[in-house]
Amino acid sequence: MTRRVKPEKSSAGLDDRKAAILEAVVREHIDTAQPVGSSAVATHGELAVSSATVRSEMVALEREGYLSQPHTSAGRVPTDKGYRYFVDHLQGGAVGPVTQQQIGDFFRTVRGEVEDVLSQTSTLLSRLTSYTSVVVGATQSFASILSAQLVNLDARHQLLVTVFADGSVTKHGVYLDHDVTPTDVAEASRQINALLIGTTVESRVQVPSGNDDVATLVRESVSVLHDQRPTREGEQVYIGGSSRVAEAFDGVETVRQVLTILEQELLVVSLIQDMIDQGVSVAIGSEHGFEPLASCAVVVAPLTVDGHPSGAVGLLGPTRMKYGEAMAAARAVSQELTRYLEGEPRV
Amino acid sequence: MTRRVKPEKSSAGLDDRKAAILEAVVREHIDTAQPVGSSAVATHGELAVSSATVRSEMVALEREGYLSQPHTSAGRVPTDKGYRYFVDHLQGGAVGPVTQQQIGDFFRTVRGEVEDVLSQTSTLLSRLTSYTSVVVGATQSFASILSAQLVNLDARHQLLVTVFADGSVTKHGVYLDHDVTPTDVAEASRQINALLIGTTVESRVQVPSGNDDVATLVRESVSVLHDQRPTREGEQVYIGGSSRVAEAFDGVETVRQVLTILEQELLVVSLIQDMIDQGVSVAIGSEHGFEPLASCAVVVAPLTVDGHPSGAVGLLGPTRMKYGEAMAAARAVSQELTRYLEGEPRV
DNA sequence: CCTGGCACTCAGTAGAATCGAGTGCCAACA
DNA sequence: TGTTGGCACTCGATTCTACTGAGTGCCAGG
């Protein structure tokens, strides 16, 4: 079968009219949550063709996997591939002035500790978009240490309290198998402080050898701080608007599944981190590989503070989410948040 | 109309048979989530009466507000008042050995910082009961201060880091309207530490007067620490198993409402705190005054560490929750958690 | 006071009929 | 060759009806 090459077809894309039709279908379906028929596209859209033409294009689009039919005699619904094409090609969206205003106002007036700001940011982003939002807080791997001290809880339990330049504070328990004197703890604390100030948790430092209590305490403390667990503990997750899940999906079962995922913060972090690492900003349907989230789309925007990757903001919605708005909002918030975090020293 | 006084009737209670019938209805309805009819009670239950008798008692129970009928030809469903009577009079339940075992295992093996333990406890409690669980962490109002130091972020921003005897650590930003020297900060830090060690955030301490930077820093720091905001910041909330909400209620709208409440942690804290303060352990339906939670029941058990009220554990479920199990589980977990928190110094 | 019996009520279900949005296909047309 | 109007067809959704049966309220007899 020889076949003439159609315009744009060979370049693995869609010709203009197909693209326009796909776009119309996606737009309409996002709006109405209903399958959209050929006449709706023909009437509503800007392309001056009849519904019959649209229909024949639609069968093509379906054959190529961009659309699907819930059943015969129904309209078409975009597939994940359809949404993907839409997102990749037909984008273009900035946040509206009102939203931009709200974001600006928020960061102009917000005060307090980083944790609170991140948490509130998550709420803000959720409110702006009507989707569930996720803010993954920075690790302090890059922040230099301002102070590290060992506090005596009792004879064999100490607490290592570390303050970082970004205003974050961590604590780690340091346990020994025998009692130590407060004097030794104080001395160890002094040495630890001297040793660690100015370094980061990624720096290697010279620890004292020796078997005396002070040296042991110092070694233990440094190692407990440097041993970031595989599930990096510097990362906090703030989930805002989880009730939006109940709005976005109609089946109670789907809602339950999505909530179950959201409960497992580690899962959420790694999902988002993976996306950031791979440089994608949208994952649609099962692109991210979590089956329970097959009916979801995730939008992320990275946070980069002083050149270091420092977490991300994300949005979770149904695959028929308003990608334009969501991506624009995520981007805007991540920018402003970045600026905020880079600006005034955060406390 | 003169009327003979029925047994137990005058004492604002229910006579034995009514109580038994009410109990049977509640039990059955909790089990099946369906309205329960007279024959089910007559057959299933232990009382040796016919369904006709049960029926006539049921109309009485309905007249008195313990039961209600969804519609004429349906069985009866307990009202909030019915559940209340059930909970108040017909209780009796301890956790099963398996559950007790799981709780024991958990606290025997769990390690880590208080926050993590509380968070995991919340997950545990939710898993044990299949309801959404809430753990409200202790305030440090009663814990004495082990260490307080001021860390220099930049010329006019300092961070007050305080370590408490219970292993908790807080940080507070201290801002001045002019620059201060690192030397002054160090000196202030020394003074603050000396001043605060051994006190609690509720103690009044003698702060230095004077207008020099050091004195100002000390005053600012002490006041920022003592000024617990009305929404006490020492309280952390850990919500476990929020996906259970989707299991407990069938209407998506109800799910959304409950989730919306759970998002507002302050609301949750104050709800639970109120219950604790008033000494109630179960709030059914609208007893707590939150209309959005009218279809919920809340079970709480206080945490009391070393004699001080230190938060609570709670469970949130539908009004037809398994009160016996839930209360027993909450009590058992709160006891074990208390023991854990009082035991090994917590880090 | 209890109980078996009986007429009655009414939500839920099943089946039949209908509706209509939307399709696929085709012949005619530009 | 691509586009279009027309047309028969499909099939989910909706409506209507009839029926079922769980459960009730009431009453007369024990």
Radius of gyration of chain A: 26 Å
- Using the 3D structure, state the CATH architecture of the largest domain in chain A: 2-Layer Sandwich
Shape estimate of chain A? elongated
CATH class descriptor of the largest domain in chain A: Alpha Beta
SS summary, helix count of chain A: 12
Q: Average pLDDT across residues of chain A?
A: 90
Task: State the largest interface.
Answer: A-B, 40 and 40 residues
Question: Might you state the CATH topology name of the largest domain in chain A?
Answer: Beta-Lactamase
Your description of this structure?
In chain A, strand 5 and strand 6 form a beta hairpin. Chain A has twelve helices and ten strands. The first copy, chain A, has a five-stranded antiparallel β-sheet with strand order 7-3-10-9-8, with helices on both faces. In chain A, strands 4-5-6 form a three-stranded antiparallel β-sheet. A two-stranded antiparallel sheet of chain A has the order 1-2. In chain A, about 45% of the residues are buried. In chain A, about 45% of the residues lie in helices and about 20% in strands. By secondary structure, the first copy, chain A, is an alpha+beta fold. Chain A is elongated and about 90 Å long. The first copy, chain A, has three domains: about 15-90, Winged helix-like DNA-binding domain superfamily/Winged helix DNA-binding domain (Arc Repressor Mutant, subunit A); about 95-140 and about 235-340, Beta-Lactamase (2-Layer Sandwich); about 145-225, Enolase-like, domain 1 (2-Layer Sandwich), CATH 3.30.390. Chains A and B meet through strand 4, strand 5, strand 6, helix 9 and helix 10 of A and strand 4, strand 5, strand 6, helix 9 and helix 10 of B. The first copy, chain A, binds a DNA duplex (30 and 30 nucleotides) through helix 3.
